[in-house]
Amino acid sequence: MSSRHFSSGALDALSRFGDIMLPSHEPFPSFSELGCLEHIDSIVDYAPADDIRQLNQLLGVLNWLPDGGLRRVFRWCETPEGWPEMIARNFRLLNFALRSILCTLYYSGKAGTGYEGPTPLDLIGFEICRIPKEVHTRETARP
Amino acid sequence: MLQKGGARCLLLESGPHVNSADFPRTEAEWTSQLYWGGGVEFDRDAHIGFLRARCVGGTTVINQALPDRFDNVALDSWREETGIDFFTEEAMAPYYDEAESAIAIQTMPDEYFTRNANIFIAGMEANGYKWERLRRGQSDCAIEAGNDCMGCLGGCHRDSKQSTLVTVIPKAVKEGLEIKSDFHVDRIEPRPGEVTIYGRHHDTAEVLRAPKVIVACGALGTTHLMLRSGFASRLPALGTKFCSHPQWMSFGAFDEPVNAHQGAFQTVCSKDPAFRKAGFKLENVFAGPIAVAMVSPQTGAYLHEYMRNYRFFSCVEVAIRDEAVGRMTLGKKGRLVVHKNFTDQDLHRREMGLNIVKEVFISAGAKEVVQSPFAYSLHLMGGCSIGTDAISSVVNERFQVHGHDNLYISDSSVYPNAPGINPALTVMALTRRMCHELLN
What we know:
The structure holds two protein chains of two kinds.
Chain A: H1 8-21, H2 31-34, H3 40-44, H4 49-62, H5 67-78, H6 85-106, H7 120-124
Helix pairs in contact in A: 1-4, 5-6
Chain B: E1 10-12, H1 27-34, E2 41-42, E3 48-50, H2 72-82, H3 89-101, E4 105-106, H4 115-126, E5 131-133, E6 136-137, H5 168-174, E7 178-180, E8 183-191, E9 194-201, E10 204-210, E11 213-215, H6 218-228, E12 247-253, E13 268-270, H7 273-278, E14 280-284, H8 289-294, H9 301-308, E15 313-320, E16 327-330, E17 336-339, H10 344-363, E18 368-377, E19 407-409, H11 424-439
Parallel strand pairs in B: 1-7, 3-18, 11-19
Antiparallel strand pairs in B: 2-3, 4-6, 5-13, 8-9, 9-10, 12-15, 12-18, 14-15, 16-17
Helix pairs in contact in B: 3-11, 4-10
């Protein structure tokens, strides 16, 4: 898998963070089992380039950590209260960045090429109906 | 209105020009493609997420189009804060009338209330709290045909939502309005008789000149442009008085499906005088799976169990009337930095609201109540506040930037404090007032 925005190390880190945030939990697949990371570029193409560049660098470094270290960083992101504010603020930012990217991909309705099961959207029963513009009904509401 | 009054107008928009046939269809696509920051932006300390649209029509394309007039509580506080005497219900009425006449406004009848709305109503009534039907800017939502309005968070594919894309812009285009989308304005430079605009159209540098310029990029966009253009040295109030009606979502989990994502999306809200006095209100709303997952209090197996309840969740948000003590400055590489901390009063208002939401859900039969710790805001206000002097404000009562009679600001950045009421209709009404002044 490759990306226009993230190095292979950064993608690995995202996948590992994804499995911490969204592990396998019957009937839900883990983040990496779903394979939705393949679609990363389609959601970050529109994000500020500077933000993505910085995140790419940070994730590349974090990917060197063993699983226990990565879990610890993830826990600090979720509960940064014990840290001085200068540091806590960066953990909160990373928490938001990870939640934004990982939740968007996982609940995007898309899966990787090798995945054949139902997507998380199917599993939670999410479906919305759009009645075409051309179909006019009686006034839906009173003034 | 300006075009009709004889002006030749050009509308510049940083984002794309998308219409109802081309709106993105999934939550992942619309948040990344139509929202600034690729979805959500944050304050410097990452306490709060900001949502605003980046497309022709701006945030009117993605909001819930709730056109509420301000009451005397809000207008009195504005009059006291600014010294401007037209902030009264009577003086504003003609402009509200005019703004309302340009859009279709409806309320949903009972038969279109979803289970989400009925749970809210039952819980409110069980506790003796007052609620009301929302006035909605919409024309034909086709609820009875089975349309699910949640899709309109990414732009209304039916053109029912009364965004400026379907109300004023098409009329202005007929009168000759020209639109340049994908045009990013870097800075503006007013001189006597002319304003120069330096920008990039599809990344190609372009310089435009106009006798008058109206800046209307919203609280963050307008303030950022004014800061980039160097007005802070002359206008010390630039970037101050930022406020945003921060909101926190709570979910009540029920045994039977609620399906809050289907049908009429948002139809009722609190209307309790005690809540208004206390400085908060409750919104009966919901969100797509991505947004609901993002605000989950925990992750891991908890997040899966929480999302398994998605169709069983009823949702109520607490929105507070926050103190306007936020500030916006220029950071590294000219980026906008929003400094926004919650005051003790803000936190007290949140706690009061969250406690009532819990009561409401429990009274309505929820088996569990989940309260999100994450705050986000859609009502971004202040930064270029209106007033009578160049020390405490940025624009005068004619909406002209102090010291520059050909540079106007007309959006929620001129708000001097948080009204505690949906801000959109008042932006429209004030804009109409400004247009009358300008044409005169």
